[in-house]
Each structure stands twice: as C-alpha cells, then as structure tokens.
Prior knowledge:
The strands form three sheets. Strands 3, 4, 5, 6, 7, 14 and 15 form a seven-stranded mixed sheet that branches. Strands 10-9-8-11-12-13 form a six-stranded parallel sheet, with helices on both faces. A two-stranded antiparallel ribbon has the order 1-2. It is an alpha/beta fold. Helix content is 26%, strand content 25%. The chain has helices at residues 50-54, 123-133, 152-161, 174-180, 196-203, 217-226, 239-242, 258-263, 277-292, 309-317, and strands at residues 3-9, 22-28, 36-46, 75-79, 88-91, 98-102, 107-108, 141-144, 166-171, 187-190, 208-213, 227-235, 267-270, 300-304, 324-328. It folds into two domains: 3-121 and 298-328, Alpha-Beta Complex (Quinone Oxidoreductase, Chain A, domain 1), CATH 3.90.180; 123-270, NAD(P)-binding Rossmann-like Domain (Rossmann fold, 3-Layer(aba) Sandwich), CATH 3.40.50.720.
Amino acid sequence: xxxxxxxxxxxxxxxxxxxxxxxxxxxxxxxxxxxxxxxxxxxxxxxxxxxxxxxxxxxxxxxxxxxxxxxxxxxxxxxxxxxxxxxxxxxxxxxxxxxxxxxxxxxxxxxxxxxxxxxxxxxxxxxxxxxxxxxxxxxxxxxxxxxxxxxxxxxxxxxxxxxxxxxxxxxxxxxxxxxxxxxxxxxxxxxxxxxxxxxxxxxxxxxxxxxxxxxxxxxxxxxxxxxxxxxxxxxxxxxxxxxxxxxxxxxxxxxxxxxxxxxxxxxxxxxxxxxxxxxxxxxxxxxxxxxxxxxxxxxxxxxxxxxxxxxxxxxxxxxxxxxxxxxxxx
Length: 330
C-alpha cells in the first residue's frame, strides 16, 4: 500500500511552539470516497496564525487543533483522481503530501498566474481589507503594522497600487526595515527603537488615514494617536498576542484610548476574507494584471521537503524570514 507523510500536532505547546511539538507521520495514502478528490500537494504555506490554532482557540474562522490532529492550511496541488487528473487546484489541506479534498473545496487555478506558488500569496486578505473594510482613497496615508510578514509584505505594495500617497510600516528588525522600503513603504518604524507613537508621528507627520493592523498592542494605540478624522482601521491579525512568548497565543490585550475613537470618528473593523469567492476572483484578476506589468511581487522563502516544515513554523514564529514561507514537496 502506498504511503505518504503528514505533519501532526504531538503536544500542546508550552509557549511558542517548538519543533518537538510537531511530528512527521508516515501513513497510507487515503482513498477518495464519493464527492472527494485525491490531490498530490506540491506547495503549502507556513503561517503565523497556526500558533493560535495549536493553542486550541475556539470561535475563530479556523478550528483549533488537538494532539494527534494533522495541521492544515493553504496549499496548491494537482488532482490524482476526478474527471480531469493533473489539474492544479488550491485548497486548505496542506501539511501533507496527499490530501482528500471535497469536490466543492477544490478550486482550479488555471494559468492566470505564471507561477503556481503565487496562488499562495495572502493577497485576498489584504485586498479585501484595503478595498472593503478600510478602503484606501487617492492621497491617503496608510500605516501597516507587521509590514515584513506574509501579509504585510503584500499590504505595502497594494496600498500604493490603490492610490496611497504615503505608506508607513512597522517591523521588529532593522534588516527587514531595509527590505520594506523596496516594497511600497516610504518609511518604517521599528519596534525596540523607541516608542512607536513617537516614531509614527515623525514618519506620518500629516496623520494616518488608513490603518491595516496585523499586530495590535502598541501599534494599535499609536495608530489611534496618529489617526486623522474619519480614519478607517482594518484589524486582520493580532500578532502581539499570537506570537507572545508565554501563554497560548489566543488573546491579544491592548490598552487604547477609546475616547479618541469617538472624537476622531474612527471606523474600526475586524476583517477576514474567509470564503468570499467573488473577492478571490477579483483579486486573482488584478494580481495577474499587476504581475504581468511588473508592479507587484510575492516575497517568499521556499523551504524544500515536508520534513522541514516543523522547523519552518518555528522560524516563522520567531521572525527569521521576510515575507511568506512556502514548503515545496516537488
């Protein structure tokens, strides 16, 4: 019987997940039943929000994990069974070499983008947030917290493409700040280099019109202080809590001045692209156009082999890489 490998949760992490909290398991290749397609995965992403899922969060858009569960996440693979074997599809059952995917969850990707890996870009979340939850208008100043990660490295570029006049990002590393200035950012504030509010006031002297928040915490408080009247905030992540060294990563407390929200009439929206297929289609079309014109890129690090995935997750959670991290199974 043919076998495959997959990554399972071995233990509930005590603090940030370590390599030993995950395990590589060899298991039989599954046999599809009615309404299922067997997919041979080629690529999957390693994303920071897995820390929260490994903490057993409940009520989130994605279900929490328990010891013994196989990890999951965005993946691109080719169908082995079904009406058209060899079709490239994207789905949410990464972290395994072969996946059983319900017909309805197999999304053919076609050839709209030249590289299948590009379909793993976090563009839909960014595009949806900056066109729906906190729409960017021509001439806006946009502040992006966590601007060097998988999401933030796309957000600076998209804010610029959508008409922002000035884009400011935050990060925790000086070397990442240097790279961000080539991806749509005019200025970068660095955690640990002084109060974020003071740095942001200098980087955005005319105030902030749109805040794309991956982090929460001090960055959220600073954005409120710098916000212009009728500023729009889209909260898409809470890495200040999700990546906290201690705890479960399932909470992200922040001390903010709510009175300023009222005085400045700030609109604050928690946002998730979820299963918005219309948004995904719109994003694919615009991403393809911008890519062909050389106006956008997908910053990512490629890791070879499923056995490297547990270490790749540790590296993502400790901020080792710039942009997205993709595990290649070819």
